[in-house]
Design goal:
This protein is mainly alpha-helical and 139 residues long. It has one domain: bsu32300-like (Four Helix Bundle (Hemerythrin (Met), subunit A), Up-down Bundle). It has 6 helices and no strands.
C-alpha cells in the first residue's frame, strides 16, 4: 500500500475515533455518567487508536529500512531510536499499548474509572497527534 494512501486512511480513522472520545469527554464534563454502551464505545475507540498507531509505527520503521519488532512495545522503542517519536514519550506509549492489550484480551483488571479519567483529561491525544502527523514529518 502506498504510504500516502495509508496515511490518509489512518488520519480519517484517527479523526473519527477522536470525535467519539470528544463526545464522551463533553458528557463527562457535564457531570453525566456514560452508559455501558458508551463506555464500550470509549474502550473501542482507544483500542482502535492504539492499533492504528502500532500499524503506522511499523510502516514508518519499514519505510526507514528498519527491522520490524514483533512486540508493540519494542516497535515504539525502535521508532524512538530513529527519532520518529520522542524517547520521553515511551512511557506513554507503553501505557497505551498495555491498555490496548487489556481491552483486547478481556483482562479483568480494566478499571473503567481510570479509563474515563484518561478520556476526561485527554491523555490519549498524543496518539491522535501521532496518527494525524504526515508520514514524512519526524517528531
Amino acid at each position: 500500500m502506498r504510504l500516502d494512501v495509508y496515511q490518509e486512511e489512518t488520519a480519517q480513522i484517527a479523526r473519527y475515533q477522536s470525535e467519539v472520545l470528544a463526545d464522551a469527554r463533553k458528557k463527562l464534563a457535564s457531570g453525566e455518567a456514560l452508559s455501558r454502551l458508551e463506555q464500550n464505545g470509549v474502550l473501542h475507540a482507544l483500542q482502535v487508536l492504539v492499533e492504528y498507531a502500532i500499524g503506522k509505527a511499523k510502516h514508518l520503521l519499514k519505510a526507514a529500512g528498519q527491522e520490524i519488532p514483533i512486540s508493540a512495545y519494542d516497535t515504539f522503542v525502535s521508532l524512538a531510536a530513529i527519532e520518529q517519536i520522542q524517547s520521553e514519550q515511551l512511557d506513554d506509549w507503553n501505557r497505551a499499548v498495555g491498555l490496548r492489550n487489556r481491552i483486547v484480551h478481556d483482562y479483568m483488571n480494566i478499571r473503567m474509572n481510570v479509563v474515563l479519567e484518561l478520556v476526561r483529561d485527554k491523555q490519549y491525544y498524543f496518539i491522535v497527534e501521532f496518527l494525524l502527523r504526515p508520514i514524512t514529518q519526524t517528531k
